[in-house]
C-alpha cells in the first residue's frame, strides 16, 4: 500500500518542494544580494576604520611630538626666564658700573686734558730741540762725510803703502835670497881660492923658502909674486927653461881654476934701459909687457884657457919696495900671477 502511494507522495512532495524551492530561491537570491551589499558596506567600513585608525595613530604621534615640544618649550621658557632675571641683575650691575665708569671717565678726561696740555708744551719744546738737533746732525753728517773722505784717502794711501811695503818685502826677500846665494857662492869661491892657495903653498914651498916667490890671499884675490930672476935672464923677456919648470908647478894648480880671471902683471925697477937692449925695449914698459905676454902665452900653451888670461905691463910704476937698495930693486923686478874672481 505504501509502495503504491509512494510515487504519488513523491510527486506531491516534489511539487511542493519545487514551489517552496522557487520561493526559497527568490528569498535566497535577495538575501545573497543583501549579504553582498552588507559585505561591501562592511569592507568599506573596515577600510574607513583602518584609515581612521592610521590617522588616529598619526595624530597620536603628532600629539606626543607636540607634547614633547611643548615640554621642551616650557623648559626653555623656564631657562630663558631665569636667564632674563640674571640678565636683568647683570644689567643693573653693568648700569651701576657704567655710571661709575662715566664718572671715572670724566675725571680721566680732566687728567688727560691736563696731561695733553703739558704734552703739547713738551712737544713744542721737543720740536724746537729736534730742529736744533737736526741742524747739529746736518753739521755732524758733513763732518762725518769729511772724515770719511779723509779716512778713504788715508786708507787708499795706507793700501798704497801696504802694497809698496809688500813689494819692498818681496824685493827684500829676493835680495836676501840673492845675497844668501852670493854669500854661498862667495864662500864656495873663497873655499876654492883657499884650496888653490894651500895647494900653491904646498907645491911652491921650496921657492918660497928661498925667497924667490911669495903667495898671498886677500878677499878672494890670490897673488903669486915671483922675482924675475927665476923666470928670465937679465935684459931678456923669454922664459928660461928653469922658469918654465917653476911655471909648470903653478900651472898644475891653475889648470883646474875655471871661475877666476888669471892676470899676469909685469913689473920692473926704475933703472933705464940703455945700449943695444934699448933698441928692443926702449923703456921698462916694453920689457914688462913682453915678459907678462910671454908668461901668458906659455900658460896658454900648457892648457890654460886663453879666454881667462890677460897680460898687463906696469913697468916701474907699481913698486913694492924702494929702488934705492939692491934688495928693493930685486923685489920690484917681478912677475905677478893674480887670480881675480869673475864678476
In short:
The protein is an alpha+beta fold and 343 residues long. Helix content is 73%, strand content 10%.
The termini sit apart by 203 Å
Which strand order do you get reading across the main beta sheet?
A: 1-2-5-3-4
Element order, helices and strands? HHEEHEHHEHE
Number of helical elements: 6
Strand content: 5-15%
Shape by Cα distribution: elongated
Helix content class: over 70%
Q: Which radius of gyration do the C-alpha atoms yield? A: 79 Å
State the major sheet.
5 strands, mixed
Task: Briefly note the structural class of the backbone.
Answer: alpha+beta
Average predicted confidence as pLDDT: 85
Q: Oligomer, anyone?
A: single chain
- pLDDT < 50 stretches: none
Can you count the beta strands?
A: 5
Amino acid at each position: 500500500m505504501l509502495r503504491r502511494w509512494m510515487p504519488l507522495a513523491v510527486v506531491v512532495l516534489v511539487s511542493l518542494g519545487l514551489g517552496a524551492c522557487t520561493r526559497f530561491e527568490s528569498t535566497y537570491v535577495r538575501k545573497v544580494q543583501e549579504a553582498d551589499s552588507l559585505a561591501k558596506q562592511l569592507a568599506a567600513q573596515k577600510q574607513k576604520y583602518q584609515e581612521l585608525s592610521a590617522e588616529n595613530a598619526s595624530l597620536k604621534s603628532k600629539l606626543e611630538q607636540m607634547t614633547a615640544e611643548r615640554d621642551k618649550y616650557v623648559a626653555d621658557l623656564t631657562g630663558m626666564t631665569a636667564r632674563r632675571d640674571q640678565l636683568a641683575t647683570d644689567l643693573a650691575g653693568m648700569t651701576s658700573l657704567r655710571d661709575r665708569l662715566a664718572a671715572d671717565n670724566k675725571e680721566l678726561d680732566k687728567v688727560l686734558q691736563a696731561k695733553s696740555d703739558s704734552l703739547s708744551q713738551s712737544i713744542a719744546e721737543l720740536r724746537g730741540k729736534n730742529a736744533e738737533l737736526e741742524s747739529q746732525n746736518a753739521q755732524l753728517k758733513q763732518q762725518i762725510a769729511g772724515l770719511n773722505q779723509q779716512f778713504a784717502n788715508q786708507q787708499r794711501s795706507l793700501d798704497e803703502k801696504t802694497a809698496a811695503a809688500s813689494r819692498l818685502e818681496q824685493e827684500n826677500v829676493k835680495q836676501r835670497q840673492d845675497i844668501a846665494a852670493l854669500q854661498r857662492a862667495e864662500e864656495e869661491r873663497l873655499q876654492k881660492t883657499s884650496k888653490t892657495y894651500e895647494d900653491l903653498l904646498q907645491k911652491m914651498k921650496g921657492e918660497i923658502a928661498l925667497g924667490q916667490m911669495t903667495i898671498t890671499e886677500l878677499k878672494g884675490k890670490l897673488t903669486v909674486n915671483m922675482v924675475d930672476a927665476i923666470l928670465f935672464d937679465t935684459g931678456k923677456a923669454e922664459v928660461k927653461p928653469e922658469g918654465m919648470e917653476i911655471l909648470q908647478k903653478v900651472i898644475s894648480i891653475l889648470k883646474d881654476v875655471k871661475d877666476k880671471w888669471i892676470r899676469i902683471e909685469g913689473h920692473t925697477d926704475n933703472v933705464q934701459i940703455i945700449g943695444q937692449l934699448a933698441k928692443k925695449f926702449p923703456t921698462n914698459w916694453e920689457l914688462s909687457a913682453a915678459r907678462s905676454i910671454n908668461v901668458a902665452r906659455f900658460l896658454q900653451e900648457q892648457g890654460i884657457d886663453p879666454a881667462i888670461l890677460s897680460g898687463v905691463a906696469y913697468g916701474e910704476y907699481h913698486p913694492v919696495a924702494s929702488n934705492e937698495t939692491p934688495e928693493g930693486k930685486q923685489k920690484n923686478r917681478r912677475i905677478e900671477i893674480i887670480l881675480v874672481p869673475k864678476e
